[in-house]
Design brief:
This protein is α/β, with parallel strands linked by helices. It contains seven helices and 18 strands. Strands 10-11-9-12-13-14 form a six-stranded mixed sheet, sandwiched between helices. A five-stranded mixed sheet has the order 3-1-8-5-6, with no helix packed on it. A four-stranded mixed sheet has the order 15-16-17-18. The radius of gyration is 31 Å and the shape is elongated. The relative contact order is 0.11. GTP binds at residues 167-174, 192-196, 214-217, 284-287, 319-321. Monomer.
């Protein structure tokens, strides 16, 4: 079984902030000591860090849940709780991170050591020392820690390669990779010998170097899931140049030009932007008897079906077996790479806007709905955060929460919707009676 894994779905949960403390200074020679409860510590973030030593997402096959530690609770003597350390999760270069709910791209991690916070820890709750006022010099109020961010993520690995080899099965892509690099892909005289992407480094005679990816063979209908489908086509998205390998000997009984059209159609069906990448046509197996004649016919068909003003792709006859024409091909590839800039993988519509961890001023502070059992249900980010950070073990904190709801207009909104004295109101799993 292949140990290559290039997609994964995981759950991440940042640490909650530590709860603030209610405490009072009681010392023999300190009259009216006052509040002395400290704040809770910050919860740990979940941070992705690129590790160039990783090659697949196999580590996420069985470990799909990542939870950072919560901050320590506040302490007496006004001491703050310790903040939790961030949870570091290592990912391979070329990992794209998406939010599973929205499908938006959060980040594209390509540089070794690059870091990105995928879930932010909650801030610590305030201790009662923070709530002292001239009117209430000894408050019995503290806050619970803010809940850490929790989300489901989709990870997608797209290998980092400058050049991608595409073509039908058994056209010689793996053999070509093994000859021009030190990579040792599996080579066999049957279709779909290559079932995982293989990567190798090329060094030309002039000293240029670039990375080449040999992608599992495409066949007609791959974009509809035939054969290996488009399972590995994502790996070609990072490449800047495509080497389109064609079996010019027609040893499989197919027409080389029809092969060329079919593969381009699959690339276009998968992603229109793949056709923006420059292609070099690699006419392979030129050591075979019929290859020269087939190449002549191929060039005629190509020229006849190209717009007269369009520039024809470069064609390089080679033989991976005899190493004929390889030096010229590699030099031309390096030259084309120098002239080709990076391609933008994602447009703005696919990227999530830079995260803002406050409240959206334009968003409603709360929403009211009615459950099937006639209970009024309150929801909304701002309201739920206030609820989660309220310490309901303290009467003063409960009264403060009630005043906050009234100040937000919740009471008036419930009356307008028809709420009556004694009706049940629910926030999350917490229920209380509406008092008119």
């Amino acid at each position: 079984m292949s140990m290559f894994l290039d997609t994964a779905k995981i759950q991440v949960k940042a640490g909650n902030g530590g709860d603030g403390m209610v405490a009072f200074r009681r010392e023999k020679y300190v009259p009216n000591g006052g509040p002395w409860g400290g704040d809770g510590g910050r919860g740990g973030n979940v941070v992705f860090v690129v590790d160039e030593g990783l090659r697949t997402l196999m580590d996420f096959r069985y470990n799909r849940h990542f939870k950072a530690q919560s901050g320590e609770k506040g302490m007496t003597k006004g001491m703050h709780g310790r903040g939790a350390e961030d949870l570091i999760v290592r990912v391979p270069q070329g990992t794209t991170v998406r939010d599973a709910e929205t499908g938006k791209v959060l980040t594209d991690l390509v540089e070794n050591g690059q870091e990105f916070i995928v879930a932010r820890g909650g801030r610590g709750g305030r201790g009662n020392i923070r709530f002292a006022t001239p009117k209430n010099p000894a408050p019995e109020i503290s806050e619970n820690g803010e809940p850490g961010q929790e989300r489901e993520l989709l990870l997608e690995l797209k290998v980092l390669a400058d050049v991608g080899l595409v073509g039908f099965p058994s056209v010689g892509k793996s053999t070509l990779l093994s000859v021009i690099t030190a990579a040792k892909p599996k080579i066999g005289a049957y279709h779909f010998t290559t079932i995982v992407p293989n990567l190798g480094m090329v060094r030309t005679q002039s000293g240029e170097s670039f990375a080449v990816a040999d992608l599992p063979g495409l066949i007609e209908g791959a974009s509809q899931g035939v054969g290996l489908g488009t399972q590995f086509l994502r790996h070609i998205e990072r490449t800047r140049v495509i080497l389109h390998v064609i079996d010019m000997s027609a040893s499989e009984g197919r027409d080389p030009y029809e092969d060329y059209l079919a593969i381009n159609k699959e690339l276009e069906s998968y992603n229109l932007r793949l056709m923006d990448r420059p292609q070099i046509i690699v006419a392979n197996k030129m050591d075979m008897p019929d290859s020269a004649e087939n190449l002549k016919i191929f060039k005629e068909k190509l020229a006849a079906n190209y717009d007269e003003f369009a520039e024809l792709p470069q064609i390089f006859p080679i033989s991976s077996l005899t190493k004929q024409g390889l030096a010229t091909l590699l030099d031309a590839t390096a030259e084309l790479l120098d002239k080709t800039s990076e391609f933008l993988l994602y447009d703005e519509s696919e990227m999530e806007e830079e995260a803002y961890y406050g409240f959206d001023e334009e968003a409603p502070a709360f929403e009211i709905s009615r459950d099937d059992d006639a209970t009024w249900v309150l929801s909304g980010d701002k309201l739920e955060k206030l609820f989660n950070m309220t310490n309901f073990d303290r009467d003063e904190a409960v009264m403060k929460f009630a005043r906050q709801l009234r100040g937000m207009g919740v009471d008036e909104a419930l009356r307008t919707r028809g709420a009556k004295d004694g009706d049940l109101v629910r926030i999350g799993k917490f229920e209380f009676e509406f008092v008119d």
